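Weekly puzzle thread! Below is a chain. First person to post its structure in token form gets bragging rights.
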Amino acid sequence: MTSSTTPGLARFNALTESAATTALHEVCASSAWGSTLLSQRPFSTVEALFAASDAATAELTDKDLAEAMAGHPPIGRPKPGDPTSSREQRGMAGASEELKAEMLELNLAYQEKFGHVFLICATGATGEQMRDAVKTRIGNTAERERDIVRTELGKINRIRLTRLVEEAEEENA
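Winning reply:
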């Protein structure tokens, strides 16, 4: 991405409020995050969009974080028919049945401890890397884990925003 306005960003900026709300909700399920970004349109650069996303993510309350996490399926179980979660969790697609069963157990133990799905920026990660991350993070305090979740959510939001403005560019090509 360059520091100039891209055709995809211009298209996003020009969306109706309803269409932009829908697009942002597909990036992040937190309505507070989406409302914050929506209120700051138009963005002059992709970097300005990322900065707004990062700031909005940093400001999410525990309730907002829970809403955002509710939009993410457990690792190893992408939402049927959802190409985004399938693409992001590609590292689990070829995992052994043993690893998938282990991830299911770990996901359940994590959810039992923290009350929400294990959230990790899975793009580019192998099944083993995701397993090792949940094994490590399950030992965290709730406060430490909330900080990590916020960081991971920020990474996911950036990847999804990049895809949003790149897809918009491809549609105009």
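Puzzle host: Confirmed. Bonus trivia for everyone else. The two ends are 16 Å apart (CA to CA).
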